Amino acid sequence: ETVRVELGTRSYDILVGRGLISRAGEFAAPLLNQKRVIIVTDANVARHHLEVLDQAFVQAGIATQRIVLPAGEQTKSFAQLEELCGRLLDLKAERSTTLVALGGGVIGDLTGFAASILLRGVDFIQVPTTLLAQVDSSVGGKTGINMAQGKNLIGSFYQPRLVLADTAALDTLPKRELRAGYAEVVKYGLIDSSEFFTWLECHAAGIIAGDEAARRQAIVTSCRAKAGIVGADERESAQRALLNLGHTFGHALEAECGYSDELLHGEAVAIGMVMAFDLSARLGLAPLEDAARLRRHLASIGLPTDPGWVEGRNWVAERLIEHMGKDKKVKDGRIGFVLAHGIGKAFSPAYVDLAEVATLLEVSIAA
Ligand code: NAD
Ligand code: ZN
Fold first, then answer.
1. How far apart are CA 314 and CA 241, in angstroms?
2. ipTM over cut 0.95
3. Each residue of 89-111: b (16+ CB within 10 Å) or e?
4. Whose CA is nearest to atom 39 of ligand 1?
5. Residue 250 CB less than 6 A away from ligand 1
6. Domains in the chain, CATH or no CATH each
7. Rounded distance, CA 256 to CA 326, Å?
């Protein structure tokens, strides 16, 4: 199935299906400026999928070179960017060479950024291999790296020429990573589609267990939702802000854990979305039942719903608020959130008194 991302001359297709990696050459060939690609991946993904992708290009008469980077969030750094650009130049990358990012959001963000600056810009293709990358990071053209000062602070808007989301890649993804990515799928239902949320309530178990049709439909619906939002609004503003549902709380929790394996991004977002719904209910904006329904759904597939899920950590409300403050959304003692009138009815910005946020955090931490 195909989702078209409409961005004028920079429009591109997201193909979703099983076995796309083994057919990558055929789909990429018409887009290449020379019969040559450089594949960038990480060590984990290379073990499972690099050979198949490489062969798919070779069979289509496309020459390949490979760069394998270490796995993990640390790879989204200036040091690794420099390393990557150096290796690309050593491989004699040219203006007409296409880079292929094979991996999760880390490889996609780093490779996309490198593509945007190498020789003032070369083409790149995304082959996302995590659920998070297939439904979120590979759509919308945000690329970048982290700094000591914070995540994603250096980067660019740079669109890929093509995205190949192969559901078969998810077979080798650790279940914890799969569940974490699923939190972002739920987010699209919460933002503006209660029908999708209801559908997910029936199909979540299948999506996690490997029901192919359900996975495909979940990915296509999510990509369509994000493509619709970024197509309307490529650079950040009102519409795109809705994608931050659960992320203001989530980022604070993640930052406090040092972006470590203690709490994956999607897990933090799951907790953050519950907090956003609890806050909405507390303010009388949304029915309590919707917050409860969200909790039940996330818990049903083993996603966390409260900060207490993280073992052995003593959360401090003031410290979380401090992190949210750094998130630049504070105005006269109030923090800007994405809140909701219910499932499928998110809105933003909603400015909430710090005192109210502090109370919610205290309750949430105690849970
Ligand atoms: P990731 O790229 O680190 O992948 C998670 C782990 O799974 C890694 O260890 C990786 O090696 C492994 N892996 C990936 N695919 C695999 C597969 N098919 N089989 C086995 N192992 C596999 O993390 P992620 O969750 O995909 O992405 C997180 C990153 O995405 C963050 O840096 C975040 O900032 C970024 N992000 C970007 C955007 C955007 O719009 N650009 C949006 C959301 C998130
Ligand atoms: Zn996210």
1. 30
2. yes
3. eeeebeeebbbbbbbbbbbbbbb
4. 137
5. no
6. 2-172 (3.40.50.1970), 175-366 (1.20.1090.10)
7. 12
